């Protein structure tokens, strides 16, 4: 190999890591002919003691869902019985090994990860995937999912990707090595290997004109005349590298005998790993094996493998340069050679490529193939088959229906842009209210995928109006989706208000005797809350939450129902219900591999952690959310979800930056997120003692009164209003609290009510209410709220000159805030303590603070008694990675057994004798 020192060093580092028991991933990216394949060959040659598995993706099979993954996993499928039940079922369904429900693509990814890491435990593995841009989407997702989760698995993966073909972002999180043209000295050295003499000045021009692309260098040296190479005849100016290479390949192909030309076209159209199929088709075309010889002699096919092209660019040139009639004839032969049962999908596709004009029989075959793809969870393949079937369908209505089905499949695969294209193609051929309703619902879903919610409620309300009384259950589902979007958009909806959506949902509620699901009850409660007020919605929300805690249905795992649960629980100050329901939703999401739903559930769980002062646990959940957002392509990740964590920990710059980013989402309708930012800023300003600024933010939330934080802001507004002398504002906030807290009836609600009364009471009544607040808040996992109550009580006692009593409350508040990491509030408590005459020293940070979010997560699960395998399944990683993280936890915490973990990381209920280290 000439040059490539940096690229070879990157490959060598990966191989060394795999040999040392770790993992490595590398994406080689560059233009065609730049040398990516040669680097894969270098990796294979250097992979001593590793088992090397190679896969070359091919363009004709881009649409065959899970086809590449099946080829890659074929040597390891004998190990599939070691997978957990859900993983095994998902993989069986994806690869068509056994019938079953459609496979969730993330469970397939986890099964791939588990299967390959299990094999790597016996012998380190290296996977080399060439032309990864031609992988079918499902296979690419599974491999990217696996690559992102490798850590300590003795497994390496190298992907070669052509420039401009990685726009889906699947491999963005992996290490990338850009392969560029050879520098001039190395390009000259390569040119010196060609049989004909190349003049030095000509060589310099060729190097500049090709950018040092190795393939272009060699092919140009072959394509130019001897006179041009020697400098006697002028070179084209500028050098038409791309066109010259293409025309060079085309000249080679056109010079072949007719039978050989037909054979190379057949090779270009056939699957590269099924030579038997290719030769059966060759037989139908009257071609013999000897027809390959001229192509081998011309350098089109490889000498050692006469059914393989010398370079994949030649394959593309062969197929692109063929006449349409020749391509159709070739696909017809391939279709006839396919087994009608075993290769039904491939046969249907080749029949479609052989068709000229509409052909309902072929379209029906494609539609049947799309159903088989759906049953495997191959939604992008399903969409491809349906879109092609639509092209070949004569009846406009049937064509439109197939395009709708294709759009739905695109949405299931996460491709909202392709879904909108299919819907646009369906256009005016949509007939009847059901088809138009489906179209609007899918357009709304595509908007939600892009976190653009402003227009979604109106779109869905229009769908409801078009549907009429035809399907009450579908009407209710559409209204629930519209209500969800309207509550998220809040005052940013366009074309319809949240109150109008809520009123329609109340009027259309399903018969509770027929649909007693907790989910429906909760959505009706939120609708009544928005349309008729808190006093009408609260009783139904309480019934719904009790039903959900008792095991009533929560809906499909793919739906982010936790967001609605969070709104209801925060509105009723019910943190216990929020934790219980969230834990069950998270478990169901993990079992189903429903990563999008799980990500939303994690955000809700993080809020519960914050209210209980468990900031490190919250950060763990935020970090996992960010991992999942990267996996699913969800654009709503990042710091905008950490608003309250930033506020409580005093990270002002990050808080304000996140709030600015949220303000930029104004036009796409995230009104609720902006109110949550206001709530977080209120929390922050109160911690700093900046009461006027806090009051401004809190009043905005109070006036909007969203379920998510409209009630939670009340004690904050009362505190800020009392400190700034806003008697009217305080009166309104207290009146609302007096009205709502008894209806909620939870310890948090009643403790907050007592705190509000304490802040506005005089004399002994205030002390009574402060003590009542603390007693109530102690009954729920609300350590942060309890500490806030204590600091306010302590401040009140100090102002009453009861320094000894004040110290007890302020010291308890300070120690809590300090332990949580709530720096603004800890400093506020410390300042108050100093005013009582007591000095407060900041404690030395505990060792557990050194744990990374992932280590903390693994440690918490181990403390709860989960095995390494169970932890791996829940976190979508491998057991060896879990073991690696646990070893680091043991070293950092200076412990020797899992029994010591709970005390070492401060888990509730851990005994003080559990944490003895090695000493």
Automatic annotation (TrEMBL):
<dbReference type="InterPro" id="IPR016032">
    <property type="entry name" value="Sig_transdc_resp-reg_C-effctor"/>
</dbReference>
<dbReference type="GO" id="GO:0005524">
    <property type="term" value="F:ATP binding"/>
</dbReference>
<keyword id="KW-0547">Nucleotide-binding</keyword>
<dbReference type="GO" id="GO:0006355">
    <property type="term" value="P:regulation of DNA-templated transcription"/>
</dbReference>
<dbReference type="InterPro" id="IPR041664">
    <property type="entry name" value="AAA_16"/>
</dbReference>
<dbReference type="Pfam" id="PF00196">
    <property type="entry name" value="GerE"/>
</dbReference>
<dbReference type="Pfam" id="PF13191">
    <property type="entry name" value="AAA_16"/>
</dbReference>
<dbReference type="GO" id="GO:0003677">
    <property type="term" value="F:DNA binding"/>
</dbReference>
<dbReference type="GO" id="GO:0004016">
    <property type="term" value="F:adenylate cyclase activity"/>
</dbReference>
<feature type="domain" description="HTH luxR-type">
    <location>
        <begin position="844"/>
        <end position="909"/>
    </location>
</feature>
<dbReference type="InterPro" id="IPR000792">
    <property type="entry name" value="Tscrpt_reg_LuxR_C"/>
</dbReference>
<dbReference type="GO" id="GO:0005737">
    <property type="term" value="C:cytoplasm"/>
</dbReference>
<protein>
    <recommendedName>
        <fullName>HTH luxR-type domain-containing protein</fullName>
    </recommendedName>
</protein>
<dbReference type="InterPro" id="IPR036388">
    <property type="entry name" value="WH-like_DNA-bd_sf"/>
</dbReference>
<keyword id="KW-0067">ATP-binding</keyword>
<dbReference type="InterPro" id="IPR027417">
    <property type="entry name" value="P-loop_NTPase"/>
</dbReference>
